[in-house]
Amino acid sequence: MNDAPDLDSPVGGRTDPDASVPDTPTSPGDTSATTVAVALDGSVQRLDPRIRRLWVVAPGIPLTLIAVAVAVVALVRDATGLVVAAPFVVLAVMLVLLAVWAVLRWRCWRWSVWPDAIELSYGVIVRTESLVPFHRIQQIDIRRGPLERLVGLASLEVHTAAATSDAWIPAVDEDLADPLRRALLERAGVDDAT
Amino acid sequence: MALTVGTMSSVRGAAEGWGPADFPITLLLVQIGLVVRGLSDTVGWWFRTYRLEEDQLVLDQGILARRRKVVPYRRLQQVDISRGPVAQLVGLAAVRFSTAGDAGSSAVTLRYLDHRQAEVLRSWLLATRDRLTEETTDGGPSRPPPPERPILALEPARLVLAAVTSTSNLILVGIALLAAVVLTGANVLIPEGPPARLVGLTTSGIFLMAFGVALGTVTTLLDTWQWELASRGDDLVSRRGLLTTRNVSLPRRRVQLVMLSDNPVRRALGVVQVSVDSAAPAGASDGARIVIPLVDRAHVADLLQTAMGTDQWVPPPLTPRTAPALRRAVLRRVVLCALLGVLLVVAWAVPGTLSDSMLAGLLVGVLVVATAIGVPWGRVAHARAGWARTGTVVSFAAGVISHVQSVQPINRIQSARTTASPFQRRVGLATCAMDVAGATGAPSLYDMDAVEARHLRQELPRRAAVAPAPMPADFEPEAESQFSVVE
Fold first, then answer.
1. Residues of B whose CB is below 8 A from A116
2. pLDDT per residue as tens digits for the range B177-210
3. Which chain B residue lies closest to A163 (C-alpha atoms)?
4. B421 touches chain A (CB under 8 A)
5. What are residue B427's phi and psi, to 5 degrees?
6. ipTM value greater than 0.85
7. Which residue in the set B414, B425, B465 is minimally distant from A193, CB to CB?
8. Could you point out which of A79, B249, B343, B383 has its C-alpha 20 to 30 Å from the C-alpha of A60?
9. Would you say B275 and B224 are in contact if contact means Cβ atoms under 8 Å apart?
């Protein structure tokens, strides 16, 4: 998993959110009618870059609310300007830290789809690498929270019969989530030989 | 309002406390609860029916909200019979069916059956399942139900030994010994005698531990009394229990994991506990496995060969981890001991009772003791850890106080993971874990060589689709995927 990041790959790595999804099948043997915009060649994919904003905004909202609440309490108790400003200074520092963390986290995230398995690699401090073969896939969930819907992202969760299996892709473009799921599930059906 | 009531009752409680006068009221409440439960059970009896159809069992129950559960015979993973003390007196039994899946929702229990009827039902269900599975695999004629062949029965002495030498007992005894050492040390060190609070605390602690040991031993004994293992066709059958008897059957082809576990005492006696796990639902921790309480280590290979019908489950010889793992194993334990010791010394020194030279001497002493404990501990931990892989199984082993070796068929691996902390990455090590179906944790090995770990992660889950099952040569593979959850 030490390959150089491939930002021009067809999945997830697109930096322009308005670019249209290529609707030609990319795997040569695939003649089915479903349009699969997923390369099953193990090429290294990154998360959609918009997730970086979400990773700052999602924890930032409650932090901002807390800062405002503290400031309001301080104002009600007739505090001086510095005490009122303190929570916002703390908030600003935390937001900067969150932004740095989000960038690091995004840089460490890689995922790739092989002809027979899906592979993840993530973690800034503790690095986790995980491989889930298609023939074990039981179910794939697509989840889209309110913030994710706002920016047009979706997360994909792959389940196997093991509770400990780990295959969660936190950010793909919303238009890509469904083709990706279909591509994975197709494979899951084909290879279910055990 | 609620506040007033709360205050009033607490005042009353403070004034009078919970006295004998309250006892009848409590008893009455308990009685009412029991009567209500009994009534609902009795009324529920009229609303609970089960039906044996051609290829599935249908259970209808519920007084207001009707619920129907359907168990296709072919999906049956295990059929257990359990009988509580009262049920044994009146000749009743409960039959529980479980089917594969990790959700835990797929266990169905039929309670209050006549116990002979329960036995008949169980053998009929298992025979029907085998017949249906056979029809789909080769369409051949149905065979009569296979005879039961005994594999192992444990005599009372062995069961007592197993119950006494459990790891939880050892830990309790260890804590009690530590308390005794503290008490003796305080007696020697403090000339005017240790404070009464310390004496009270340690002695009551020792008694508590002794009680825990006795309770744990008796419970385990009651649970494992008259332990027997047999095979019937493809199934392993286990019987056990004195008050509540259990009768568990587990298809060999569903076995996901075999674990051998021991502790220092069991190791010294040359015995080991073997558990055979299947992919039963999460809630069914009891039915999902057969635990063989105690086997001589020398006989484990024979036993597994007899029980599983092939020698492929016998734990293969282990490859030790690499040298950086040994250094880390020692270093981590020395650092842990040193930190604990330094914390103790600092806690002692904070009131200012120690001079600087005494403090320095104590810290040096702590380092010496930490090295003296950590180095051998780390070396033992390293020596007992390792991994192995054959054509059909992969095996991990680790642990000093509780040592566990897992044997996992490659064709049952669900997915694989490696994780590496910055310290591990720096010396080229990683933790490797193989996920197993169900809710049990994944067998894993800490501080494996990162290249080997990556290789296992990349290869084994992929091979799972094609790897041969660790099964006898005449074994017929299943016709379909095993992980459909019953609706």
1. 462, 465
2. 988 888 888 888 777 777 888 888 888 889 999 9
3. B439
4. yes
5. -110, 15
6. no
7. B465
8. A79
9. no
